[in-house]
């Protein structure tokens, strides 16, 4: 049986769309696409993440390299930015470009790891405690409170920004979580040597 | 000088897009298009309204016929649905289809008129008092609280749903108003006989 770590990497390695939610609730939810795709040239568990408006997948609004790990038995998704990330926009659909991402391109995002636990058939992850994952929006600094729920059928996410001093809720959807269905599966791109290192 | 009524019709008769807002605040705002276009065959002040996700303008999520009036000196935007409205989807970009809309196709939306006042260079409209503009969303009935701010450069809108009994805020964006820039001008489609009836 696969380890929790490997199950989490497998469940993440796919494409997700909230099209149904967007079309059932106009205009409250943007239609967005989220893809996580293995980067076999990097450390085991490394996944390219692109998030984009469905209308413009060539210009993702967020591009990250995640690294799924089990640190002292605690499932963790380490969150990293890319230096000059525009070089890699669209790499999630371009294997040649994806293959050019190197460890030296990665920038740590302190305080922004997700702490993950298994829950029923899936996983729930939340930004690590400490209110240290700072983001800029509309000229103000806020800290990110983010939750990710993953199951075999899809994913739910919710992001909110809070004021670092007053903890006031500054931005984020009151309408609720984004709800994604799974549209693509990239499991066959997970290299065999990752499983070997994970000791299955 | 044009009457307030005519100024309001002229300021509405255009196309609007919140592209800048959507792209500056991903993924909190869907990119939406709103167009108001004169219907010269109907009563003076009649405008076809279509609202759509930018990704799919052929399938508007809302299509209405508005009628701008001055009732006892009070600027009012009467709100009407269309019977079997799918017949008219895309009419805002199709003059032949638009020309087929007849008075007999219109369905009143009781309690959903906007009461409008002039404010600096533009107008502010809010749904008439009474909590009677009922909408169904996610299987629940709510009443609409909606505000429209119009100025020469663009438009801001905010829609919220409240429970008819408890007045609890059920849906709507905490992130704030949709902010639209003007992208199209349909002033030259306002027929001369409307101005004549308005007595300018």
Characteristic terms for this protein:
ten-stranded antiparallel barrel, Chromophore lyase CpcT/CpeT (chains A, B), mainly beta, Lipocalin, EC 4.-.-.- (chains A, B), CpcT/CpeT (chains A, B), homodimer
How would you characterize this protein structure?
- The structure is a homodimer of 200-residue chains.
- The first copy, chain A, is mostly beta strands.
- Chain A has a single domain (4-198), classed as Lipocalin.
- Helices cover 13% and strands 44% of the residues of chain A.
- Chain A has a ten-stranded antiparallel barrel.
- The longest helix of chain A is centred in the N-terminal third of the chain and has 9 residues, at 4-12.
- The model of chain A has no long low-confidence stretch (mean pLDDT 92).
- The A-B interface holds A 22-23, 25-32, 51, 53-55, 61-62, 137-138, 169, 171-175, 178 and B 22-23, 25-32, 51, 53-55, 61-62, 137-138, 169, 171-175, 178.
- Chains A, B: Keywords: Lyase.
- Chains A, B: Covalently attaches a chromophore to Cys residue(s) of phycobiliproteins.
- Chains A, B: This is Chromophore lyase CpcT/CpeT.
- Chains A, B: It comes from Cyanobium usitatum str. Tous.
């Amino acid at each position: 049986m696969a380890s929790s770590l490997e199950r989490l990497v497998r469940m993440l390695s796919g494409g997700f769309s909230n099209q149904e939610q967007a079309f059932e609730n106009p205009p409250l939810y943007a239609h967005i696409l989220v893809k996580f795709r293995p980067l076999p040239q990097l450390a085991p568990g490394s996944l390219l993440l692109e998030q984009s408006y469905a209308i413009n997948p060539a210009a993702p609004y967020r591009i990250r390299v995640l690294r799924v790990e089990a640190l002292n038995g605690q499932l963790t998704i380490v969150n990293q930015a890319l230096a000059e990330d525009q070089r890699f926009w669209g790499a999630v659909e371009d294997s040649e470009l994806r293959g050019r991402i190197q460890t030296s391109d990665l920038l740590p995002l302190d305080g922004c790891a997700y702490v993950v636990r298994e829950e029923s058939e899936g996983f729930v992850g939340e930004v690590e405690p400490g209110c240290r994952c700072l983001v800029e929006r509309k000229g103000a600094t806020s800290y990110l409170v983010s939750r990710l729920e993953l199951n075999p059928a899809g994913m739910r996410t919710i992001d909110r920004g809070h004021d670092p001093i007053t903890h006031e809720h500054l931005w984020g959807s009151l309408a609720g979580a984004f709800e994604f269905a799974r549209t693509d599966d990239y499991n066959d791109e997970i290299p065999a040597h990752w499983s070997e290192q994970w000791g299955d």
